[in-house]
């Protein structure tokens, strides 16, 4: 292949490599417009990993989509914990949150250290 034909091919390869693949390491964001949000626990991750909500009451629903036990706690918020397992696949609770940023996490085994956490942004 001559240089004049090779150059456009190389440009396309570089462009495709820069634009493609990679995935979204940050996870998915949901907006709790109605004061509620659903969080799925599967393997060792939560979906979504970010929840945006207004100050006040927030109802969270945790569902187990795999075959493990999981919990959802909110750092800095006492007396709030949701638990699920293969036999109890759904738990729900309501929490009162002031404006700020909160971390939710799973305290089972080493799940949080493995990345099973997310953020609640309250405005």
Task: Describe the protein's architecture and organization.
There is one protein chain. The protein has a six-stranded mixed sheet with strand order 1-4-10-9-6-7, with no helix packed on it. The chain has a four-stranded mixed sheet with strand order 3-2-5-8, with no helix packed on it. It starts with a helix and ends with a strand. The protein contains one helix and ten strands. The chain is mainly beta and 123 residues long.
Shape: globular
The fraction of residues in strands falls at 35-45%
CATH topology (level 3) name: Immunoglobulin-like
Structural class: mainly beta
* Count of distinct strands: 10
Strand order of the largest sheet: 1-4-10-9-6-7
Tell me the layout of helices and strands.
Elements: H1 3-19, E1 29-31, E2 36-42, E3 45-47, E4 50-53, E5 56-64, E6 70-74, E7 81-84, E8 90-97, E9 100-105, E10 117-122
Parallel strand pairs: 1-4, 2-5, 4-10
Antiparallel strand pairs: 2-3, 5-8, 6-7, 6-9, 9-10
